[in-house]
Amino acid sequence: MRTRDPKKRAKNFLEVSLGITETQAVKEAKRCLQCKRPKCVEGCPVEIDIPRFISMIREKDYTGGLQVIREYNLLPAICGRVCPQENQCQGGCILGKKKTPIAIGALERFLADYEAAYGDAEAPVKAKPNGHKVAVIGSGPAGLTVASDLAKLGYEITIFEALHEPGGVLVYGIPEFRLPKKIIQGEIEYVKSLGVEIKVNWVVGRTETIDELFEEGYEAAFIGTGAGAPRYMSIPGENLNNVYFASEFLTRVNLMKADRFPEYDTPVKKATNVAVIGGGNVAMDAARTALRLGAKNVYIVYRRSEYELPSRQEEVEHAKEEGIKFKYLTSPKEIVSDEKGYVKAMICDRMVLCEPDPSGRRRPECSGDEFTMKVDQVIMAIGQASNPILTHSVKGLNLWGGGYIEVDENGATNLPGIFAGGDIATGAATVISAMGAGKRAARAIDSYIKSLKVSLRKKRKPSAAK
Ligand SMILES: Cc1cc2nc3c(=O)[nH]c(=O)nc-3n(C[C@H](O)[C@H](O)[C@H](O)COP(=O)(O)OP(=O)(O)OC[C@H]3O[C@@H](n4cnc5c(N)ncnc54)[C@H](O)[C@@H]3O)c2cc1C
Ligand code: SF4
Fold this sequence. Notes:
The chain is of the alpha/beta class. The protein has three domains: 2-118, Alpha-helical ferredoxin (Fumarate Reductase Iron-sulfur Protein, Chain B, domain 2), CATH 1.10.1060.10; 133-228 and 386-459, FAD/NAD(P)-binding domain (3-Layer(bba) Sandwich); 243-380, FAD/NAD(P)-binding domain, CATH 3.50.50.60. It contains 18 helices and 17 strands. It has a five-stranded parallel beta sheet. A five-stranded parallel beta sheet has the order 7-14-8-9-10. A three-stranded antiparallel beta sheet has the order 11-12-13, with no helix packed on it. Helix 15 links the parallel strand 9 and strand 10 (325-327). Helix 4 packs antiparallel against helix 5 (62-72) and helix 5 (62-72) packs across helix 8 (104-118). The protein is globular and about 70 Å long. The structure holds flavin-adenine dinucleotide (FAD) and iron/sulfur cluster (SF4). Flavin-adenine dinucleotide (FAD) binds at residues 82-84, 137-143, 160-163, 168-169, 173-174, 202-205, 224-226, 228, 247, 250, 281-282, 285, 312, 387, 389-390, 422-424, 428-432, 434.
């Protein structure tokens, strides 16, 4: 895939990857073997008919190809950009055994971008209302998927979103240089065009409780509130000035436009030497954002080796090209203050890798050796936790792992009419897994409401006979 020049792009927020051309897309599609039992589909959490959309690219039927994807996946322009394809569809592609797997993500993105640039897709026809109302809490990929799948069945859907813009992590977490905001806005407009209403600045659990929503006539509620609360390491110095939780740092820039302070009035502290703790997508995004804000040296500090980095491969490659420095087998032990309470250094343990832990990755242990890094900003990107505002307001809701919602395979909680999915049920995961959970929950909510209708009919029958 074509990308912008690393030196230039490290100074701005323009999208780094430029996608593939039509000629490249058709050529790549022709490499596909059109397998009878396609392993790529097995690797996709929403089971997109990948060979079918690829065959349409061969025939240059791009609108048809996109329609195939949209049958399974509401957000192709987004998934084509941010899905960890190397571990999912592309990871399964049979061609990957001997040669290069098909660039499925790039093809998905090509179709979505082609449609946005030249497409003539008609606006979706709104379904005939079926007279039932469902509340969706949170407008991330899980909430958007439930909302659109149910709207297509005729449900009246309202999404309640705590922030002032819908989109969840897609707008507040993932930076513009990886996922331009206009792409998300386009996908959200599509959801709205199905008749979905989105109420922003609405914190369910504070502005209104779920019980109150039920009193207003909603017959079911889906909770897709994500995992956006901070998680720290519990080491000395974490409360010093210039220590950020990655999501806060990213939200300030992505959503509140802190990079354009004072034009926008949310500031973010700029620094010269920045340490980002963690090795996932969040860490890469925070590091590359710090670089774009003007830092001279940005370090990814990760306690395992390069081999175990959980981030998407492409993001690691892009980060390296831009000049991010990687400190592997390193774990912070203490953040050191200057006389004014600001970060001035970080003391770190050197780690060694031992036997694999339950996650399958080799467990890091202190080697007994330590060293000091001169940094003036530390950004924690070691994972996120669930936010308790909503879960604590729902009496009797079963939780696991200190705050995630317990659900069955269809997203049903232990309380009738309340469903959940995405990061709030699984812990921090991926866009496509949140969408998969949304799809399953939409089917379950439809069955639940239909079963309510049946039991109401049964109840009414005797009185009707009188
Ligand atoms: C910086 C970052 C980078 C990432 N990069 C990738 C990537 O490259 N690829 C990938 O697949 N995944 C990535 N992820 C993970 C992915 O974004 C999440 O797994 C996914 O967004 C989860 O979707 P969700 O719908 O469950 O929740 P979210 O996207 O978190 O959305 C939840 C929404 O609920 C709202 N909300 C919370 N509480 C309330 C309340 N009480 N009332 C109303 N609304 C509420 C929130 O404001 C938010 O808008 C990344 C995550 C982060 C943080
Ligand atoms: S596994 Fe690879 S070659 Fe086979 S259908 Fe899927 S993308 Fe094509």
